[in-house]
Amino acid sequence: DLSDIRNREIGFIFQGFNLIQNLTALENVELPLIYRGVGKRERTELSRNALTRVGLEKRMSHKPSEMSGGQQQRVAIARAIAQAPPVILADEPTGNLDSGSTKEIMGILKDLHKEGRTVIIITHDNDIAAQAERIIRIKDGQIEADYVQDTEIYEE
Asked: What is the percentage of the chain residues whose pLDDT exceeds 70?
């Protein structure tokens, strides 16, 4: 049951992209939808829409080795958002990217949040964290501080 909830309710974005190298961008986005039991026509439509949403409408047939790191991360985001999960969990989503790609990725994540999705970003980068509405700082497995837009909720 927990696996089913994770599969349907949470979109995962990984630092290392986790793309399958011999699949195209479109196929990489479609793959989790296959596991969810989404039919071919709907799966293709959802995947195309997600790739278009992240600006990759002209790169759908490209394999990861034919794309930049920023483009690969956008494929990973498209894969995470294709079926519109209410929660996006992003683990160091900009960790392997240059500053231009980082700005693009953060823009996409902010847009998702503005649409009403919960976006959780795990990061060690204070500049990335500073862009969040709420920051929860964890040290040694314990919550050390919890801030909402310059308002301290909790600090140990």
From this structure: 96
Do 50 and 29 touch, CB atoms closer than 8 A? yes
Gap between the Cα atoms of 78 and 28, Å rounded: 9
User: Dmax of the chain from CA atoms?
Assistant: 52
With residue 123 as reference, give the H or E element that holds it: none
Q: Which residues contact 79 (CB under 8 A, 6 or more apart)?
A: 11, 28, 29, 31, 32, 50
Is residue 68 within 8 A of residue 1, CB to CB? The reply is no
- Quick one: tokens of 118? 């919960």
Predicted model pTM: 0.87
SS3 state at 102: helix
Which of the 8 DSSP states describes residue 15? T
Q: What rounded mean pLDDT belongs to the chain?
A: 91
Q: Which domains does the chain have, with CATH numbers?
A: 2-123 (3.40.50.300)
How many whole angstroms separate alpha carbon 56 and alpha carbon 12? Answer: 19
Give the H or E element holding residue 86: none
The Cα 21–Cα 63 span in angstroms is 6
